[in-house]
Amino acid sequence: MEYVNLQFNSFLILFLTGMILGVFFDLYRVFRSTIKVNKIIDTIGDLSFWVIALFLLGPSIYWSNWLELRLYVWLALATGTAFYFMIFSPKLIRVYRRFWGVITWLPRQITNLCQGIIYLKETLGLSLRAWGKKNPGRPKSPGK
Predict the structure, then answer these.
(1) In sequence order, what are the residues at sequence separation of 6 or more whose Cβ sits closer than 8 angstroms to the Cβ of residue 111?
(2) For the segment 80-107, what is each residue's pLDDT rounded down to a tens digit?
């Protein structure tokens, strides 16, 4: 009976690890959908995600079954990930998007304020320069 309990605990740890991978993938997906980057940065981001996923998978596989890579390990990870995507992902994507909007609100406001100041400066600067020049349609004063 003890061996079955050990197998169940191992499966449960790997199942939860698969769910955590699903959470990280959704967070990465939301982050990636809001920031537009070129292909090279996109590829670097993908590689970074999988390296972080590997650092999560390695210790959990070692802890659950002493790093024995058998079929049930991959089945438990896939089952946990599929369970997360079917049950939790649709609702949590909205939460992640709202969370990302809250995080980026202040930097967006500061950027908009700076752009407005630059626009006003350029507009006033151009109008002051135009005001200082002589108007070609204006009659010339006598003696000049």
Answers:
(1) none
(2) 999 999 999 999 999 999 998 888 889 8
Q: Are 18 and 84 in contact (CB under 8 A)?
A: yes
Show me where the domains of the chain are located.
2-100
**67 contacts 4 by C-beta, under 8 angstroms:** no
- Answer left, alpha or beta for residue 52, where phi above 0 means left and psi between -120 and 50 means alpha: alpha
pTM higher than 0.90 for the full model? no
Using alpha carbons, select from 58, 70, 63 the residue that is nearest to residue 9: 63
What's the Rg (C-alpha) of the chain?
29
Residue 77 exposed, middle or buried by CB count within 10 Å (0-12, 13-18, 19+): buried
Q: Report whether 42 contacts 14 (CB < 8 A).
A: no
**Length, in residues, of the chain:** 144
